[in-house]
Structures are given as C-alpha cells and as structure tokens.
Amino acid sequence: xxxxxxxxxxxxxxxxxxxxxxxxxxxxxxxxxxxxxxxxxxxxxxxxxxxxxxxxxxxxxxxxxxxxxxxxxxxxxxxxxxxxxxxxxxxxxxxxxxxxxxxxxxxxxxxxxxxxxxxxxxxxxxxxxxxxxxxxxxxxxxxxxxxxxxxxxxxxxxxxxxxxxxxxxxxxxxxxxxxxxxxxxxxxxxxxxxxxxxxxxxxxxxxxxxxxxxxxxxxxxxxxxxxxxxxxxxxxxxxxxxxxxxxxxxxxxxxxxxxxxxxxxxxxxxxxxxxxxxxxxxxxxxxxxxxxxxxxxxxxxxxxxxxxxxxxxxxxxxxxxxxxxxxxxxxxxxxxxxxxxxxxxxxxxxxxxxxxxxxxxxxxxxxxxxxxxxxxxxx
Length: 379
Known about the structure:
The protein is mainly α. The chain has helices at residues 6-27, 32-46, 49-55, 64-75, 84-104, 111-125, 130-147, 152-166, 174-178, 263-267, 269-276, 280-293, 316-325, 343-354, 372-378, and strands spanning 80-81, 171-173, 193-195, 205-209, 215-220, 226-228, 259-261, 308-309.
C-alpha cells in the first residue's frame, strides 16, 4: 500500500463531485449567483492551504466510510443541501468515474495527468476569485514537486492501492452503460484499441537477442486489437497539454445519469460491510480530517441568503424510491464527529478553523454570509 495515494484519491474524487454538482445546478436552473457561490465555497474549502498541507503528508488511505463523511461535509460547505439518497448517488458517481479512469490509465504515471485534468477543469468553475484560483495553482505546484520525481514503480504501487480501494464497487452508471464501456454486472470493459502508452511500441513484433545483446531474429504476430502509437507525452506543466482525456468533464453535455446496484454488489453487501465500517483507528483519522474540513453541525439555511436543496434524481419520487431500495450496508450514514473530548482538541479545532476562513470579500457585496465560516455559523 502506497502512503502517497490519499491526495490523488481525494482530489480526483473531489473533481468528479464538482463536475456532477455543476451539471445538476444547471439542470435544476439554480440562479447563477447561488450556483457560483456554491462552487466557489466548495472549491475554497477543498483547497484550503492548511488542509492541503496535512493531506500531502505520507499516510495510509482512510476507510470508505471515513472518506465519504469528508465529502458529505465538503458538499455542504455552502448554502446547498443534499438529502441522504442524493448524497449516496453523488458518491457512487464520483467513485465509479474515477475507478474507470484508473482502470484505463495507460501508464501508472498517468494518474498524475488525470489529476491535473481535474484541477484544470476545477479552475474553470472558479468565478471572480483570484484567491481561490491561487489556492488551486499552489496545490498544483505542490503535487508537481512531490509526485514529479517518483519512479514508475512508485506510481504502480499508487495505482494498485487505488484499485484495491475500488475493487468491491460495481455500481452501474447509465452513461457508461450507454457508451458500452460497462457491463450489466457493473464491471468495466477494457478496450483493445487506441493509442499505446507513451514510450511503448504497438504490439505485433517479437525481437530475439543473443547473449551479446544483438538482435538476431524478428517474429510478427496478430494481436487482435486496433492500436496506434502515442504521438506525444502529456505535459505536467501548469498550462500544458495533458493529451490524455481521462479525468475531463464527461457531464459537459447534458444527459441524465442514473446509478443502479448490480446483482454482484447486492450479493457482496455483507462482504463489503467490514471494509466500509471504520475501525477505531480510522475513526480517529476521520475526526482529524473532519476538523480540518470544518467539523460542525449542518443547520438549516436562514437569513438574507436562503439555501436550497439539490436533487441528483429526475424527480423527488425517484429520490425517495432510491433511498428505500439501497442496501443498508452500502448507505453511508455520516458518523458523528467528537471534536470536544478535551481542552487540547478544542484548542486545536479553534486554531485550524480560524485558518479555514475565506479572506477575500466580494467586490460589491457586504451582506452576511460572504465569509464561508460566518455563513455556516448562520445556517
């Protein structure tokens, strides 16, 4: 298990979450000012300097339930609210999209290009906030510094760690089913075509060498695919051409997206329950992450800027039905955070929460709720 996996997992899943929220905000015709506020608030919280610093430290992956709770807090960092069924669907879409990207990743190192595709798209969501844009650019710089020099073997270990994390998830997604990249049992179809990884040759030729390293014979074989050579390597520069399309926004064209539990997933619910339920160590990890993300009670929006509910289903009836049929073991009920057990914890929480403030104020507005933490206190 790689101790460098968590930042890539968190940022890529966060990018997928923002893709989905942006699509649903547009689909439900949420007023532009509210939609911009939601996206800016979530991105600012997600790329908070102190949180990113802690996230980038070498550490083991957290449990699925612990990580899900962090995204629940993140999704509710603004005036938008999701109920349990919509939050479950949001998390299902996030995880299956990133799992697909990891499976199709040409080289283990390309997981970094997938991450940068997400960061590039996230910057496109930021409206009128140079401060938040700087937060994302600074995260990009730190990722380049930490991961740019890793070996192919270290990236292979990262990719393997991610695949182990996702191995029991087989949720059917309508987009993948319609594009025929996912089977009815929730498993993905790996293509036997397209460009080969950068630095490799199109299959079909076997070379034989003698003990001196001299080529002595060539043999051709039929590989059964339709492969092509990679024209250039994806760039890791801030504004470079990633070449790789994995990690870009597949919701940029509006189309309904549904999720369904496959038979395999239902049958394995009891088997996955153990991996979903956090152990005491994971609970401590969760408490730590939740404090950084703003571990506070979510209250009903009120005041001059009312909140709104976002539905990830076409109708309220579909949302209610989904909540009824979802296996209980796979419904990630949020864990209550105990952040006041002693004085030292309270002092640490107060210090970190102070660093989660958005210091930049909108140019033409001084109403309540402009500051993220002040707004959440008022909810």
